[in-house]
Structures are given as structure tokens and as C-alpha cells.
Amino acid sequence: MSAQKPQARGVLGAAGAFIGMSVVAGLLVTAAVTPAIAVTGMAANNSIGVFEGLPEYLNVDQLAQPTTIYAKNGDQDVPLATFYSQNRLPVSFAQISQAAKDAAIAGEDPRFYSHGGVDIQGTVRGVLSTVGGGGVQGGSSITQQYVKNVLLQKCEALPVKTKEQKTKYQQCVTDSTGVSPDRKVKEMKYAIGVEKKYTKDQILVGYLNIAGFGGSVYGIEAAAKYYYNTSAAALTPAQAASLIAIVNEPTSLKIDDPESKSNGAANGYAKNKERRDYILQKMYQYKKLTKSQYDEALKTPIQPVITPSVRGCQTAGGSAYFCDYVQKTILNDPAFGADEDTRASNLNRGGYKIYTTLDLQLQQVAEQTIQSYVPATYDRADIGGVLTGVQPGTGRVLYMAQNKLYSQDPDVLNADPRYTSINYSTDQKYGGSGGFQVGSTYKVFTLAEWLKQGHSLSEPVNANIRTYRSFKDSCTGGWGGTYTPQNDSSGETGIRNAQSATTLSINTAFISMASQLDLCEIKKDAEAFGVHTAKGEPLDTNPAAVLGTNYIAPLTMATAFAGIANNGMTCTPIAIDKIIDANGKDVKPPTSACTQSVDPAVANTMAKALMGPLQGGTAAGMNRTGKDMLGKTGTTEYNDQLWLVAATTKVAGAYWVGNVQGHVDFRKVYPTHGTSPASARVSVMRTMMSAAVDKYGGDDFPEPPSKLTRGIQVAVPDLTGKTPDEAKSILTGLGLDSADGGPQDSVAPAGTVSSTDPAAGTQVPKGTAITLFTSNGALVAVPNVVGQKFSDAQAALTAAGFKVKAQGGNNPNSIVQAQDPAAGAPAKPGTQVTVALAAAASAPPTPGSNG
Questions:
Q1: How many CB atoms are closer than 10 A to CB 526?
Q2: Which residues pair with 472 in a beta bridge?
Q3: Distance between alpha carbon 132 and the CA centroid of its chain, in Å?
Q4: What contacts 133, CB < 8 A, 6 or more positions away?
């Protein structure tokens, strides 16, 4: 027994400290003066010294409140998802039923309206009960409980990821709620300060809004909705007392576990009922209930109507990936906190109303379309697919649908392949995806550089299959090696132009174009349109990158095509229109950055070229809206990633379907509609873009300048008689190319240019390849013998190697009136030349004759 005496003395000492401090606090409240004045002459008392050294006022932070994300349904803002660490819906004093107020006071602090923050009688009773073995009793006033909850709220806002953070959090909780004289002294001092600063009604409503009601339910309004599917204003005495009972011991007295042995449906929630009935008895004792009201409340069984407030993006259905994108936007933006922990805390506790850009009408079309054409699972491939779209000129993300179901639950993800936490539409930082090779959709950036360098859509391009050994790349100092690109289909070689190369997506033509450009500048053009890899790594600049080997997110490609349709002005994507904080004040949301990617003339020419694929090229039949629309298909080397990106002046959208993992050929499998994903993509985007045009319309693309469509016209020079090298040099100087047409029979000196195709004087676009034919010297120009005497003509033709045939006699003095072949005509030696002679004239008289 002797061993227990020091413990007893310690307990009694603690009790004495509690009681002593309570008495001092009570005196201070009564005197309404500061501790230093009230206890003059008592400074030797250590506890009073502690009390004096504490701050007087407690800074009451904003209560943790749920954040709600909204989407657009026409003119209506529709809740999409809610985030919270504490499910709390703060209400005003007038929005709480009198029964709830009375229950709180009767059950927790009957003298609330008469004490000054510390209930001396209640504190002494609680301490004596604890010391005497009658169980732990708080004895704290409502004001003190409010203080304790405010301090605990500050703890709950702390991050708890690292070991050090967890230790700091636990110490904070101990300092706020632990059973110790020092903590109690601090609580009393703060309570006195709170009573000086706020009215009793303000303290009561603050307490009812901050109190914990079990689990993540905080505040009387959220508790009323969760446990009884009603509001705080409509609580009956029985319901109010049942809820206030939970506050006394949230873990054991909450009523959402009907299977509980001690407090479940089978025993009528016995533990809660016991405390509820005690509170009702106190309400009756203090004349807050009539006898009939009291009897009625006692007879009322506890029948909870549990109505969970589900949180997180999994509640957003098919819009969950957009919701996740919004969440990641907040977590990545320093405007919402200095670090991710702070930003997460602000999201889950800040009570924001976040109004997003999501158009639920287009979203519904996107969800239905993707579900129809891309199954969540497929036994032949790990298939994925997304539809996402943005608004040109604003960057507002209008829709974002995915074939998979959304979850962040590891158990769900491991058990069901229909689910994923990865957002395929976005970058890794905003959804976990590493992006996908974009195929020929990337060719638009070579087209941009082609036009920037003064080339035109009409300019011929050599699309023959060739091996390239070098490319200009000012980023790396040049590319060297061997590269022999192939085409997707046969019959696409030969001399093409940039327009047909775009319409038919001819690989060899675009590599030929790139060989005349700088690969580094092509990359910079892509970057100017906001293009970047999904992982944040630099874009590749090798020749294969021209054909789309970089890994890029669909949202990024939709944004780039929106820039093309918007006169070359690209606006970075945004998902939030407006944010209002818990106090009703505007919070600046992330804004779109708009930059002029290329000159409008270049962008408008790109738009014209990109109308080709939709009119008669690789995406023929997609646009049936009657509005101008541009677009480009993309298919990777193994047909394992398929793309179709399109845009009007009002909406731009990207469709990706492909292998999340693996390399299954999507031209050889038929997951839906009895067709391959490669064939179905036109139907998918026709449905999506038609819906977009129906709602948002679309304007005509501006007419591009002739110099970028037809190009600068150059007259083919007369190169006859020039050496081939001289001819090529002249053509190069005029911006024309050349091709060897081989030898031909000609009167020109052997080895010189005999003719060209097109012929001299023809107007052709800059860059046109002029075919040069060289003379083999096999022809001779027929001499001009018209007007000569037949004898002289015969001699001249014979000397030139031609045979002669006369018509009209053979009088040597007859005059040649015509010849065939004509004078100057090229002909082979030995060719017969027919001459037509005039009638012979009389012979002149012989000198010395008679007549």
C-alpha cells in the first residue's frame, strides 16, 4: 500500500492544481480584469505565474469545410464532386433548432449563459469524480470545449506524411486534448479570452459547428444530414439529444454501425440512447421541455437514416477523370499553397466552390461515344481510349472522357481491369500518364516550318523512297546516319506537292520536306503550339520524330490544333472558370496563357491544307457539319496507337485509341461495331465534332495568301544549248529544282540541253523540278532552200546529208517554192526532203547568136 501513497499524493496534487486554477480563473472572470491585477501579492504561486504568462486571446482559424467542384449543364452549375477531410456544413445561429441548442447546454454546460468561460462548479465536480475513481469527467464548459476543438483544428491542418510530421502532429493533439494541469490552465485562459471577444450565442454556434460527431462528420448540420437525413434547423428534441450525445464520446456513441454489439440496431443503440435520455432529462429539468414533450422524446426509438456524403472524384461518374484533372491542377499550382501538402489541405479544408469549364452536354456525348467504340476491357489487347476537347481562344477544357472506370482504391485497381487511376488525356504530372506516340498528327509542325520558310502548298515534293544520310538540326549540330522512310500505302511515291502530302499523309513527302528544313526549327514550331512530352522530357528532333515518335498527351494535341484554327494563337488549357472561398470572396483561378505560335497567314494556310484530309484524304467523310473544319489522322508504326485530331474555330478535339501496353495491330482486331479501331475513328470524331458544332457553331477559316498556296510563280528559262551543270545552276538561282530526263535526238550539240519539261516560258511554282533533256547530236536542222534554184537547193541538201525529191520537174533553174520538212526542222541524216519547184524560166540567149 505504501507504494501507492506517492501516486495518490500526485493525483491529489494535480487535482489541487486544477481546482486552484479553476478558482483563480473564476475570480478573474468575475473581476473581468487581467490576471496580473487580480492576483497582486500572489505571484509566488507557480500556477498563477503560468496562467499570467499565457496569451489572452485564441486565434480562431476558419473551420475546415468541404470543397465542391461544379460543372456546366447549360446555364446551371451542377455539383460534380466534393472534397473534405472534415465533412462540415457551417450554419448560422438561426439555422439551428432550439432543441439542438438546448440539448447542448443542458447536456454539456447548464450554466453556460451565467459563467465567464470557466464553470468552477463543473470543473471541481469533474476533478473530484476523476480522483475519487468515479470515472473521468470533463467538467469543461462549452467555451472550454470550443477552445479545445479550435486548438485541435490547428493540429488537423498539419501534414502527417513523414515521421517528424507525425510526431509533431501527435504532440499538437496531446497539447490540445491531454489531461494535464498545464493544458487545462491554457484552456481556461483561452476560454476567458474567448468570452471577452465573442457573445454567448456566437460561442454556442461556433461550438456546434466545430464539434466532432464521429468519423469525418463535423458540425451539427453535417451530423443532422448524415445520421438523420435532415437539417440542423429541423432536428426534433430526440434527434438533437441523440446527436449531442455523440459529442461526449464520438467513437463509442455514434449511430452508423447497426452491427455494433454495444451500440447497434439490435439493442436500440443502447449506449447512445442512455446518453440521449440523460440529456433529455436535463432538458426537462431545466424547463426546456414540457412533461409531454419529454415523455414523447423518451419513447422515440433511435432510428438513424444514414445518408453518407461521398467525397472524391469517384462520385463524378464519367466525368471523374476531368475531376481528377481539376484536383491535380489545384495540387500543382503554387497559388493554392507553398507546397503540395498545404495545397491538399486547402482543397480538403478550404470550403472552396470551384466552377469548372466542363460542358456536361458535350461530356455526355463524349462518354456515350467512347463507351460505344472502346470497351473498358478487351481480351485481345490492353485497350485505352479518350475523347477530349478545348475551346480555341480561351483554352477552356470542354470535355474529357475515357474508356476506363475511375478509382484510386488499390484493392479495386488490383481486382478489376476495368478500373484505372491514370488519366490518359493529360500529362504525367496531371494524371499519371506518360503519353503516347502521336503518329502523323505531328506532321503539322513540319508543315508549319515549310510554310514559314516561304514554301507553298503547291510546291512539288519528291516523295520517292530514298535513303537520307544527313539532316540539318541546329539543336544538336546536325543529324547523321541512314534513314529510309516507307509509306503507309503503296502508290504514294513520285512528285507530289505539300497539299497532297498532307491530304494523303505521305511519309516520304514529309521527310523530303523536312530534309530541306531544320529539324530543330520543326521542334520549336511544335513547342510554340504548346506541344511537349507528357513526362516533361525534351522533344526529340531526329528524322523519325517528324512522323510522330514523341510521347504526347491527347489534351496537348487538341490544344495545338485549337491554335491552328485560332489564327495561330494557342491558349494553354484551363479547367477552372471561377473559385469562391468559404467567405464568399473570389479566388483567382489559374489562367490560360495565349501566345502567337505562327504568323496568322501561316496558320490560315495550315488550316486550308488540313481541310484536305477531311475532304478526300485519310479522314474523308468525317466533316458533315457544313462548317470549315481541319483535321489530321495519326497512326504509329505498328498500328498500335491511332489518332484523329480536328478543330473548328470554336471547338478542337482529340481522339486517341491504342495500346496502353503492348503492340497489338489495331487494324486487325474488331472490338466493337464489327470494325477495327483504325476504321472506326472517323465515325467517332464525326459524332463528337458534329455535337460540338451543333452547340458552338463554327466560322469560315480566313483565306490564306496566294503566295503560300500557289507559291511564287517562275517562268521556265530557255536552256537550249546550255550544259547540264549550267542549266541546273540557272534553275537553282530561280528557286527551281531539276531532274534528268536523259538523252534525246536533237539538233543541239551533243551533251547540251536540248529541251525542258515544262517547256521554256511556262509559269511554274517555286520549287518545281524542271526535267532537262540532253542532246545526243543525232539530228540535223534541215537547211532553208526556199527561193533557191533547184540545182543550188539540191547541192545544199545533199551536202547536209539529206536526200532530195523534186516536185514539178527537175529543171535545175526552177525555183524552190516550198520544202518538207520545213526549214530548221530537226531530222536524221538521210531523211528525204521534198521540194516543190516553180515552172522553169526560158534560157537566156547565147552570146553571139541570132536571137
A1: 25
A2: 518
A3: 65
A4: none
What is the tens place of the pLDDT at every residue in 533-557? 999 999 999 999 999 999 999 999 9
Q: Which of 627, 275, 847, 12 is nearest to 283 (CA)?
A: 275
Print burial letters for 686-719: b (CB count within 10 Å at least 16), e (below 16). bbbbbbbbeebebeebbebeebbbebbebebbeb
Query: What is the distance between the alpha carbons of residues 570 and 367, in angstroms, rounded to a whole number?
Result: 26
Q: How many helices (H) and strands (E) does the chain have?
A: 28, 32
Helices marked H in 229-359: 237-248, 250-253, 270-285, 291-299, 320-332, 340-349
Write out the three cell numbers for 206: 461556433
Secondary element (H or E) of residue 733: helix 724-733
Would you state the cell numbers that stand for residue 568, as one nine-digit string? 495561330
pLDDT tens digits, 505-534: 999 999 999 999 999 999 999 999 999 999
End-to-end CA distance of the chain: 186
The gap from C-alpha 443 to its chain's centroid, in whole angstroms, comes to 21
* pLDDT given at position 32: 38
d(CA 466, CA 508) in angstroms, rounded, equals 8
Q: How many CB atoms lie within 10 A of CB 6?
A: 9
- What is the CA 735 to chain-centroid distance, rounded? 43
Return phi, psi of residue 145, to 5°.
Answer: -65, -35
pTM of the model: 0.77
User: What is the Cα–Cα distance from 241 to 789, expressed in whole angstroms?
Assistant: 139
CA–CA separation, 717 vs 727, rounded Å? 9
C-alpha cell at 70: 461544379
